[in-house]
Amino acid sequence: MATHSVAEDCEQLRKAFAGWGTNEGLIISILAHRSSAQIKLIRETYAQTYGEDLLKDLDKELSSDFERVVVLWALDPAERDAFLANEATKRWTSSNQVLVEITCTRTSDQLLLAKQAYHARFKRSLEEDVAYRSSGDFRKLLVPLASTYRYEGDEVNMTLAKSEAKILHEKISEKAYNHEDVIRILSTRGKAQINATLNHYKNEFGNDINKDLKTDPKDEFLAVLRATVKCLTRPEKYFEKVLRLAINKRGTDEGALTRVVTTRAEIDMKIIKEEYHKRNSVTLDHAIGKDTTGDYEKMLLALICHGDA
Amino acid sequence: MALSDEFQALTKSFSGFGVDEKSMISVLGKWHKDDIKSYRKESPHFVQDDRLFEKWVDPRVAFLEHEFLRFKNAVVLWTMHPWERDARLMKEALDGQAYGVIIEVACTRSSEELLGARRAYHSLFDHSIEEDVASRVNDSHRKLLVGLVSSYRYEGTKVQEAIAKSEAKILFAAKKNADKKNPIEDEEVVRIVTTRSKPHLKAIFKHCKEINEDVDDESILAKTMQCLCTPQTYFSKVLDASLCHGADENTKKALTRVIVTRADEEDMKAIKEEYHKQHGVSLSKNIDDVVNGNFKDFLLTLIARGD
């Protein structure tokens, strides 16, 4: 891979905005192939050289879906999470899932950085906004998920796994899905511990916990609980499903597609692609190619190959 | 010193706050064994045994153990990294169900300090503090405590005044309704108190006082608000209680905890001023009167830092 100087990148980007219209191809070819650390440097140098914020210029020059994917990609991962989370607190319904996604698929420290970025950008904490804008059972679940700083070690207590699997099974059988203990276990235990608990759940009671949580397909809270479990234990499967639903929806759910691609490109996109291929018999590239067009499509395709060198 | 004076000094050393090492050395060190025997016969700390010897009263020996350990505990706690210190204090409080201490640590530290303590907790105990608090607190305190230890409050100064006003009304209404529903079980109260920033809460506190003068009471909610908005008032109360005659061990321990954890903070100056205002004497003078020995000297030195 050719080495590029940051100064050159800035000059090229500036050229891409010059004159009428915008040279989107140039923007894609540069930004899609830089890591978040490199983009950070580019933004700083751009600001020093031209006295303007690269993001504002992108905002001015680009349109809708394409703009969104480029701008999101150009944000530092923590800023990106903060931005997406804030957006989610302002919307209703499906935004609950976005909050679960961000708080449960990130590592403890990634979530912490997102919260710090949130303070800086919005002059409030993520927790207070999530709390203020949600209510009832959703608040009971989402606020702890946003606040928690999970233990990330491998230490697992098998006795605890047994007893907590029992508690979960009991409450779920009683349809007490919003019970304090269900929420406590899912929102405070470390991921390794939760994995052990849910494995034990399956061994002891026969079903995957998410199967038992499917009793009412219309219940939004159950859907959010299932998403929580999936994000905590099998994030790549969770993301595959989001992508699959986004692409197959009449038209395409660009919001979800853009979000997953930009937030996972540097993390686990390779595994998600494998999962997608396994589940859908076509590659993610193929599916995106069929369903999207123009610069938006080009950018997405470039990003999902980001890690492949 | 006359023998009776020595008796008194020694008795005080065996029953006060901290031990007077100098007295013990100078008195016991030089006493003839007959003097010691007289002491045993006279002192309420010994009982005559059936087999004709004066026996130490057991609880008194246990008491002494606490008193001798005070200096050591203060030194060890002082030398510790603040994160380890706070993590261990919260663990001990959780084990002993001393929820007031958990509230104290979670609310009077800055967001970064509390976060550091949560990190240290991972290393020391292989769990997160929120999972331990959530699984071990099974009563009405759970929601509040879990929320407080998990908080990562915005630390800037920006306050949304209109929202602060309406949230003050919510808190006030919950307090008025306290005999029907415990305020700390009210979702909205817990939301406000565990997620809002301190400047925002101070604005709420101000509005609450405007609605109703009588904001000070002994409820958990009041203590929590005090820790968040006027920590110096809270600490001054805790210190005073610890120096009271007849205070129990948990109350006495607060003396070490508060002084060691606040000595290097901006707080200590404010605490000393508040203490003087509330009690008419300086904190140092009270400690000098009530506490003994190396423990006393250490505390007084810590308080005087930054003067």
Task: Label this structure with key terms.
heterodimer; A: 309 residues; mainly alpha; elongated; B: 307 residues; two-stranded antiparallel sheet; 18 helices; 72% helix
Describe, in plain words, how this protein is organized in 3D.
The complex is a heterodimer of chains A (309) and B (307). Chain A has 309 residues and is an all-alpha fold. Chain A has helices at residues 6-17, 24-31, 36-50, 54-61, 64-74, 77-90, 95-105, 108-122, 126-133, 136-147, 158-173, 180-188, 191-205, 209-212, 220-233, 235-248, 254-264, 269-280, 284-291, 294-304. In chain A, α7 packs parallel to α10. Chain B is mostly helical. Chain B has a two-stranded antiparallel ribbon with strand order 1-2. In chain B, α5 packs parallel to α8 and α13 packs across α14 (231-243). Chain B is elongated. Chain B starts with a helix and ends with a helix. At the A-B interface, α8, α9, α10 and α12 of A face α7, α8, α9 and α11 of B.
Relative strand content of chain A:
under 5%
Count of DSSP helices of chain A? 20
Strand pairing plus helix content of chain A: what structural class? mainly alpha
Instruction: Please report which band the strand proportion of chain B falls in: under 5%, 5-15%, 15-25%, 25-35%, 35-45% or over 45%.
Output: under 5%
Count of helical stretches of chain B: 18
Order of helices and strands of chain A: HHHHHHHHHHHHHHHHHHHH
Report low-confidence residues of chain B grouped into runs of 5 or more.
none
Largest sheet geometry of chain B: 2 strands, antiparallel
